[in-house]
Specification:
Blueprint lengths: L1 H11 L8 E12 L23 E2 L8 E4 L3 E7 L5 E2 L2 E8 L2 H7 L2 E8 L12
């Protein structure tokens, strides 16, 4: 857990409380909406966000859920990929700043971390 908290500190700059994280193995690809990308010009994401902001495409049932993605930080699911699963794992498609960055990412099997919300009635007070 210490390594995970250190990772959170690196991503967010501060830790206010220990937060439970659920590891989720995924197949991660990447895309971009810059002028060199095949998808240019992109429209708004499936749930209405600007495609030039940080985020990722995820299976539809993950709509608006935030994940900590190693090397990318805290990303919210605001779009859907062409395929919800690849090679038997959930598929996420991470939005990158440039087409070159997305190509360099390629296709990877990684673990992302869902921030587990507190159980009903167990919310922390004063945080």
């Amino acid at each position: 857990m210490t390594a995970l908290l250190a990772f959170c500190l690196t991503v967010t700059g501060a830790i206010t409380a220990a937060v439970p994280l659920e590891p989720v193995p995924v197949i991660a690809t990447a895309y971009s909406c810059d002028a060199q990308a095949p998808m240019y010009p992109c429209n708004t994401t499936r749930w209405g966000n600007d495609p030039l902001t940080d985020g990722m495409a995820c299976p539809p049932e993950w709509a608006h859920i935030a994940f900590i993605v190693p090397t990318q930080g805290l990303l919210s699911c605001d779009d859907t990929p062409r395929h919800s699963t690849l090679y038997g794992l959930p598929h996420v498609d991470i939005r990158m700043v440039s087409h070159g960055e997305a190509v360099a990412w390629g296709i990877r099997e990684i673990v992302i971390y869902r921030i587990v919300p507190p159980a009903r009635g167990q919310e922390r007070k004063g945080i």
